[in-house]
Design brief:
binds tetradecanoyl-COA; hydrolase; alpha+beta; 6 strands; single chain; 28% strand
């Protein structure tokens, strides 16, 4: 079977400028929710992914693989790595475009094993927007920003209204999220 490369972003997608209130290059993005498996600091076995805005529509994230993240002995689980890319891409989309959006589709290419103890450096970018759809992609490199590529990913995010979270999420968790003071209404464009 021949592999047919699909254009990325697809025809019709347009460049997406950063939101005027998006954090600038060098900004640390911090934790969006303390119970988030990707970035939260309350979960001992979580990824504790940390992200910094780089130039343009790019965010650099990193996380260190621990024994909590294993699939094969001593190696990161592939689904766990996909989770790290979901977080890195979601953070990039959310912070740079300041539109609530959720992952509709996530593709991952696993190029090299990722050992426990290594740090994955993920560079993610927004590639374009078409209607409510946001296209983003990322490369994950082993142990250095210019290390060998271990994982590549592409994500399709779909802009949603805040009711997506309030109607489907757990009220106690939403209340905790609000108490953590995220200025969602003031700084985000919330009507897709
Ligand atoms: C409160 C703020 C929080 C801030 C957090 C910031 C940091 C975040 C941290 C990050 C954490 C990590 C992030 C996470 O983990 S997010 C958690 C994982 N994701 C989800 O739970 C999403 C579940 N899915 C849905 O809710 C709905 O299906 C959505 C909302 C996605 C679409 O249902 P909706 O009824 O609304 O819209 P629609 O069906 O008319 O679709 C609209 C358009 O999109 C196209 N389409 C849809 N799906 C696909 C697909 N699979 N492939 C290709 N295309 C797809 C579709 O064809 C259509 O295109 P077009 O016909 O218009 O051309």
């Amino acid at each position: 079977m021949t592999k047919q490369a699909q254009p990325w972003p697809p025809a019709g997608a347009e460049p997406a400028p950063a939101h005027p209130k998006a954090p600038g290059p060098g900004s640390e993005l911090g934790v969006h929710f303390t119970e988030c498996f990707g970035c939260g600091d309350e979960l001992e076995g979580g990824l504790h992914l940390r992200s910094t805005v780089a130039d343009g529509l790019t965010v650099r994230s990193r996380f260190t693989v621990t024994k909590n993240h294993q699939g094969a002995p001593g190696l990161a689980h592939g689904g766990l790595l996909a989770c790290a890319f979901d977080e890195a891409l979601g953070t990039t989309v959310g912070n740079l475009l300041r539109r609530p959006a959720v992952t509709g589709r996530l593709e991952t290419d696993f190029r090299r094993p990722v050992p426990v103890g290594s740090t994955l450096h993920i560079e993610a970018r927004v590639d374009g927007v078409g209607g409510r759809k946001i296209y983003a992609s990322a490369d994950g490199r082993l142990d250095a920003e210019d290390g060998p590529v271990a994982v590549r990913a592409r994500g399709l995010f779909v802009m949603v209204g805040l009711e997506h979270f309030t109607s489907h999420g757990d009220p106690d968790a939403i209340e905790k999220f609000r108490e953590q003071g995220r200025p969602v209404r003031e700084d985000w464009d919330i009507n897709p």
